[in-house]
């Protein structure tokens, strides 16, 4: 098929209502299962010989995933690889249900926390969500490649939201699976436990060098305007850094003022008295 015909076909597909509620065909053999709050979206890639799931959503959403898979003619055991974008409960909750037959992969900094069931980071119990333990078979690094024959996924370690965040880039279709690193409109996620603003800044700057046609995030809508969204994300990260500086400058000034007033009126002296 010629390139122009392909793009017309793609546009027609994008304009058409979803054939099955809850499932969006993002590109040939690539589907999004819409996640309802608090669950993340789940993406399925039908490879030439093996099938991949990107994120699993929460444990309670497993029956929906099973139903959606069967609507695509797949069973749970037909999923050969589950790739987790990071260590949060809403992305990894149903991974244990796939583990008996699929290989599970995550960035090594996420894998460590998942295997140790680090509740301070995964938030399962804090959010009162079921957590079924599993281990991560493949501890991925930046640059790891998943070759499915018809699609190739390139792994980018993108710390910021958490330390173990990664994005998956499919260059043929120009798809960027961002998990919680970035959402449509250039919105960034919160800085969660283990994350930080400076790493976030580097991560979105790195993503901006890729040729992206669609941003496929873990929550919210798919974006087909990455050329607008990525610069916005960088701007947002920059402003966050600036805001942090302002906040601490104001905090220090307030503390100095408190000390000055306190000592002038003898507020603090009482506590320093030896009797
Ligand atoms: Zn998250």
Describe this structure in words.
The protein is α/β, with parallel strands linked by helices. It has a single domain, classed as 4-Layer Sandwich (Metallo-beta-lactamase, Chain A), CATH 3.60.15.10. The chain contains nine helices and twelve strands. The protein has a seven-stranded mixed beta sheet with strand order 1-2-3-4-5-6-7. The protein has a five-stranded mixed beta sheet with strand order 8-9-10-11-12, with no helix packed on it. Helix 7 runs antiparallel to helix 8. The N and C termini lie far apart (90 Å). The model is unreliable at 1-17 (pLDDT under 50). Zinc ion binds next to loops. The site of zinc ion has 5 residues, from loops.
The CATH superfamily bears the name: Ribonuclease Z/Hydroxyacylglutathione hydrolase-like
Q: What is the annotated CATH architecture?
A: 4-Layer Sandwich
For the biggest sheet, the summary is: 7 strands, mixed
Uncertain stretches of 5 or more adjacent residues: 1-17
Tell me which oligomeric state these chains represent: single chain
Shape: globular
* CATH level 3 topology: Metallo-beta-lactamase, Chain A
The portion of residues assigned to helices is 25-40%
Tell me the strand order in the biggest sheet. 1-2-3-4-5-6-7
The secondary-structure class comes to: alpha/beta
Q: Distance N terminus to C terminus?
A: 90 Å
| Overall residue-averaged pLDDT value | 89
Taken together, the total number of domains comes to: 1
Bound molecules: zinc ion
